[in-house]
Amino acid sequence: MSGAGPSQSYFPQLAALARQSAIQLVRAPSAPHRAEAARRLRHQLFWLTGIGVALVVALMLTFDAIEISMMPPRGTPSLWPVRILTDFGKDEYVLSALAAILIAVGLTVPLLTRSSRAWMLRFGRHVQYLLFAVLLSVIISEGVKWVVGRGRPFVGGKADAFNFVPFNGTEAYSSLPSSHAVTACALAFAVAAVWPKTRMVMAVYALLIVASRLVLLAHHPSDVVAGAVLGVLGALVVRFWFAARRLGFGIRNHGEIVSQ
After folding, report:
1. What whole-number distance in Å separates Cα of residue 101 and Cα of residue 112?
2. 3-state SS class at 119
3. Which of 46, 77, 108, 234 stands 20 to 30 A from 128 (CA)?
4. Backbone angles phi, psi at 5, to 5 degrees
5. Quick check: helix, strand or coil at residue 118?
6. What's the farthest any 2 CA atoms get from each other in the chain?
7. Which of 255, 180, 183 is nearest to 211 (CA)?
8. pTM over 0.90
9. Per-domain boundaries in the chain
10. C-alpha span between 222 and 94 (Å, rounded)
């Protein structure tokens, strides 16, 4: 496969690339030291979940109602920049952008020379990780929203941090967790896991998205904390899945997962 330009082999190459990618994602784990990485992951999930639950409960009891009472009224005209900013954490937009990048990579690879394909394929594997890290987190968060059924700020007419109608399934009762926080924090963690030098930039991005949800009275503080924790949990699990199959990540002998 020279991939120097369009040819009769383009579409067979494209099909083979898609098939190989799918097989790699579901193949049996083969990375050395994956048992150590699995133990490390379990510890991370346990402590992160425990700390997250404690913070959510503490915020519900002490700060949620106070914080939303301090925010400007919903729909305040001067908040239009915040409404633009918050869309950069919308799950549909982020997932669509990542999917579009991944498709563009797939369509480009068969056209490249052999020497250029390795870099593009490695980049494609990393984009796959970003996509699945966000997607898994968002899917889980949607289930949690439905089960919990927490009312958004001032639904019911007052600042009630304990307005729950489980299994309600409506937008008004889908406050916990914040989908924007899930998406932003999953993406921020995943990007930083692949490209560690972006950590500060991605941390600022996630904080801005989280803050925008509070300012716009879309969520309580505990909602965004729950979303942040869930997003990082999802990204951690997907990172282990990729590392165990030696896809874009390696595992050191003490179980640390590193980008490759």
Report:
1. 16
2. helix
3. 46
4. 180, 180
5. helix
6. 66
7. 180
8. yes
9. 31-259
10. 23
